[in-house]
Task: structure prediction
Amino acid sequence: MQIYDLIQKTRRCEKLTREEISFLVNGFTENQIPDYMMSAWLMAVCCQGLTDEETVSLTLAMRDSGACLDLSGIGEITVDKHSTGGIGDKTTLLIAPIVAACGGFVPKMSGRGLGFTGGTIDKLESIPGFSVEMPVPEFIRQVKHIGCAVISQSGNLTPADKKIYALRNLTATVDSIPLICSSIMSKKLALGADCILLDVKYGNGAFMKTTEEAGRLAETMVRVGNLAGKRCRAVITDMNAPLGHAVGNALEVEEVIAVLQNQNKNVLSDLALELSAHMLELSGKGDLQTCRKMASEAVTSGKALEKLAQMIAAQGGDAAVTEDTNRLPKANCQKIYKAEKDGYLSGIHSEQVGLACLELGAGKTASHSEIDYGAGVVLLHDIGDEIRKGEALAVIHGASETLCEQAEYRLRQAVSITEQKTESISLIHKIIS
Ligand code: URA
Result:
């Protein structure tokens, strides 16, 4: 088999066989295919696409490039969730305890921040003592006994994705549906949960900018998941404004705790309850209506908050943060960002808010940089709210006055206030089963 011929076949839209795709993936993972040849093939995929069958072959070859977990020791139907990433997306920290409090089982491996988007693992590490590393047998034991565990991606899962993703990042080949699908689904399949809920984001703070693109990605991922024998569903959700009010690691944990303490009812809590209900339904806990009721009761009864405390304690963290959020890291400085005119809040550009937080130190700008866990932004209003000039719109948390001032400049670009009232956004656009 010649790599040159395979590149040419994809470039000419001729279908590759399963063996040919495995040959490419294995050869590249084992350093037998040079970066320049793999880059050429990835670019051909970006330009010409792949058939569903080819995408399944690519996903399975990437899944099989490393270890696959055997979750059978949990002895229950397990359900995983994946979000394609966004600003202020802390839903994993909500759905894991909510679903577990309803009798579901959530084994979750999450990632760190990527670019201007935050990562669940960084958020969890803002809880003093919390460990995101755990041997697999312990991970399985925790899910079996508590119902949920969230850890970082294990080193030997999908090495092909690690190598291919790094190359895509350097060769402008990230935003291709078959490549995103195979990257995400290979990791989900290697983790091995029985059911997978995909939260596919669209908008200015997401990889997919339109509902059409997000829909195509969601359909492909659900098809690939089903063909691989998993119960899969996708929910397409809006990422044109940050999700919830807090952006930044400890600030997001604080918001999660407020939701689970019943203090915050907004689009974030609505989305978390809806995603939890779909996860419970996928794992056979009842019809969607019943699961919605179960999820909602888990929050109002305080059982989901208790579950979060159990999970934090089991992973070595300070569970008392669930009662006293002052125990979370705090930034040195706080600055109020005030409205410059009267009107209605009509937009909060997620990417700009994400960049403001990145510059405040809430994410890494270089591999050696340190995260400031207390840094970030707390928005004080929702889209559609009437605003008065001089009113506080956000609180900026940073290590210094200078950093907060820089973030304020970004926020000015992010916030739109108009004379006309804009309808508040409906977060869920579509469900794909
Ligand atoms: N997240 C992933 O894991 N892979 C992609 O390709 C895009 C988002």
